[in-house]
């Protein structure tokens, strides 16, 4: 896929003297489906907060040829960068269609958006189809299942014509079937978008990641394909809780074929 990629250099975020993101470099190419994994407190959410303008940071973040750091949140959103949070933020009283309409409705009046209309804008129809919500379009969002609300939120980003989606634990609390459906949705979406997923669910990561970056203590510990990251002894050490042990202490060599499944947490 052509288009914009995300290029991060020497990104640092400090909270009252504590460095939560500590010199991160990342290159996320257009059309990637990148998973950001790492133990609790590794700095994953803070990194996404920095990219989307929610926290102050130093270094450089570029999306295509545009600089993001220092720009206000709304400006970054208008550049085509959308994110979801761990809890879906949809309008529960409104229907699926109305939620999508409002998200798509920059420049249109509220009453125009809420009025029952004969036609559905192309981008809304496409988002309904992509997210599998076409048959549920007249259902209040509050009556949707947990997974469906997350898909609606992704649809609300799609109708805003975002180019980069940053998703924070999109499958948390989902059933197995919902996770599978979400993974397939993200694969469809990444055909013409760049997608970054913060995730703790290792099975989900193994099934759907195109590339993986492992964060630990604010730094990139490892990067590559799922297989490369799983085979990295540093990653196994961190997830097995041995990274902080004194270097002088004798430890068994890490079994390099150990799946990252041992790391499941969340
Ligand atoms: N606003 C803040 N003020 C002070 N410290 C913060 C703030 N936000 C995050 N931190 C700290 O920064 C570190 C990184 O947090 P962050 O939430 O980015 O980690 P994470 O990798 O997303 O973790 P998790 O997987 O648990 O969500 C943590 O030690 C956290 O306590």
TrEMBL record:
Domain ABC transporter spans what residues? 6-242
Among InterPro entries, the record links this protein to: AAA+_ATPase (IPR003593), ABC_AA/LPS_Transport (IPR051120), ABC_transporter-like_ATP-bd (IPR003439), ABC_transptr_urea_ATP-bd_UrtD (IPR017781), BCA_ABC_TP_C (IPR032823), P-loop_NTPase (IPR027417)
- Region annotated Disordered sits at 243-266
Molecular-function GO terms, alphabetical: ATP binding
The family database entries (SMART domains) matched by this protein are listed as: AAA
Keywords linked to the UniProt accession: ATP-binding, Nucleotide-binding, Transport
User: What segments bear the compositional bias annotation Low complexity?
Assistant: 253-266
Q: Does the keyword S-adenosyl-L-methionine apply?
A: no
Indicate the segments annotated as coiled coil, or none if absent: none
Q: List the CDD domains hit by this protein, alphabetically.
A: ABC_Mj1267_LivG_branched
NCBIfam families recorded for this chain? urea_trans_UrtD
Q: What is this protein called?
A: Urea ABC transporter ATP-binding protein UrtD
Q: What is the species listed in this Swiss-Prot or TrEMBL entry?
A: Streptomyces coerulescens
